[in-house]
Each structure stands twice: as C-alpha cells, then as structure tokens.
C-alpha cells in the first residue's frame, strides 16, 4: 500500500499527503514522516543545481520537517497527517496533530538552553510559518524556498 497519494495530478510536482502516519507509534511516526518528505524532495529534485536550486534547500526542508514532526510528537500527541504542496519556487509543508493548542515559541531564544529550539529553527529556515485550527486539532505549516520547483 502506498502512503502517498497525489491529489492534483500534473506533469510536474504535485500535492502529496501522507495520512497513514497515525498507524505508526511514537518516534517511529517521526521517522516515517521524515522518510516520506525525503522521498518527495528527491522525486521533485528540490535543491538540484541544474534546476536552479542548491543542496541546502533540500536539507532545510528535511530539517524543518523533522522539527515539525518532533513538535507534533512531543506536544500534540503525534502527527496525524503531513501535506507537501509545491508552488512556484516554494514548498509548503504542513503537519497536523490532534492538539488544539497553538505552538508557543520559547522567547527569548537562548542558544545555551537545552531544548526549545524547534520553532526558532523553523523560523530561521522558513520564508513564513504559522498554524491554523482544524476540526481534528491544528495544522502547523512552513513555506520554504525551493527554486527547483519553478513552474515548468
């Protein structure tokens, strides 16, 4: 059974959703989510230099995905869905969890502190990020530069 399903078929990158993630447990759920994002980044050639990107873009997407998934696991009972939506030059990554509570960045950020760096990392690497309430809890999203996703 495939965990990814295209919701808007097109000749180029398409929206992907990983809704079977809730079948995984604990840290396994984070790993499964990162693997899903890694496959999409590879398939869509995010960061490929010949398409105008750079390798750091792919690494940034994976790091933000890891932070969103870890936060969902730690504070929201675990991710219930992951959505990847490519737009011209931008990749929107959304992680949904069951908690209605908003993400709360630790302010002020102190690098010497143990823990509490996830939202700071997301803020530094993303062009924009935020959250919305949804029927099943909340969805936290981040938009990252992905030059290789320019309209083709």
Automatic annotation (TrEMBL):
Pfam families associated with the record: HATPase_c_2
Keywords (A to Z) from UniProt: Kinase, Serine/threonine-protein kinase, Transferase
Recorded superkingdom: Bacteria
Molecular functions (GO terms): protein serine/threonine kinase activity
Position of the signal peptide: none
Protein name stated in the entry: Histidine kinase-like ATPase domain-containing protein
Domain Histidine kinase/HSP90-like ATPase: from-to ranges: 37-127
Annotated InterPro entries: Anti-sigma-factor_SerPK, HATPase_C_sf, HATPase_dom
Alphabetized Gene3D superfamilies for the sequence: Histidine kinase-like ATPase, C-terminal domain (3.30.565.10)
